[in-house]
Specification:
The protein has about 170 residues and is α/β, with parallel strands linked by helices. Helix content is about 50%, strand content about 20%. It has a single domain, classed as Ribonuclease H-like superfamily/Ribonuclease H (Nucleotidyltransferase, domain 5, 2-Layer Sandwich). A five-stranded mixed beta sheet has the order 3-2-1-4-5, sandwiched between helices. Strand 1 and strand 2 form a beta hairpin. Helix 3 packs across helix 5 and helix 4 packs across helix 5. The mean pLDDT is about 90.
């Protein structure tokens, strides 16, 4: 059994999803969003993210944290905020001795839906199906974070963990 925390990084809305992997079966343990108000200074937003993720890691004790890689769009300001939130998540993981793994949006969609071009609703439906949820996970950020955890919890995650361990050993 392994617990994986998935992260959909964002400074305003950071999605998290916690999944227990039992062989080929996965079960959702938790999911939601760490929200920070738009008018709050970025350093206070990041502090709140740090505090909330620390509590979640203390509670769930994940073996790994999987993060969605930053996608650079046209809005540089938004990309910077997402990058900062991702860095805070990795810092919290490091402070708790939890290894981090990054996946592109396309790799996550492929792992969950079988296609790297899947849409948001298709991802939500597959997350619900794979985790045996009675309804679609919401909001989008939480559903995306559960998808990241599923991606890592599958064979791609196990392969990444083995490769990381081998790099550290060698």
């Amino acid at each position: 059994m392994q617990v994986v925390m998935g992260i959909d990084p964002g400074a305003a809305n950071l999605g998290f999803g916690v999944v227990r992997v039992e062989g080929n079966r996965m079960v959702a343990l938790d999911g939601g969003v760490v929200e920070t108000p738009a008018g709050m200074p970025i350093e206070r937003r990041l502090d709140r993210i740090h505090e909330e993720l620390s509590k979640l890691i203390d509670w769930h004790r994940p073996a790994a944290m999987a993060l969605e890689d930053l996608y650079f769009g046209k809005n540089v300001h938004s990309a910077m905020a997402v990058g900062r939130a991702s860095g805070v998540a990795m810092l919290v993981a490091a402070q708790h001795g939890v290894g981090c793994f990054n996946y592109t949006p396309q790799a996550i969609k492929k792992a969950v839906c079988g296609s790297g071009g899947a849409g948001k609703e298709q991802v939500q439906r597959m997350v619900a199906t794979l985790l045996g949820l009675p309804e679609l996970p919401t909001p989008d950020h939480a559903a995306d974070a559960l998808a990241v955890a599923i991606c890592h919890g599958g064979s791609a995650g196990r392969d990444a963990a083995v490769a990381s361990a081998e790099r550290l050993a060698g």
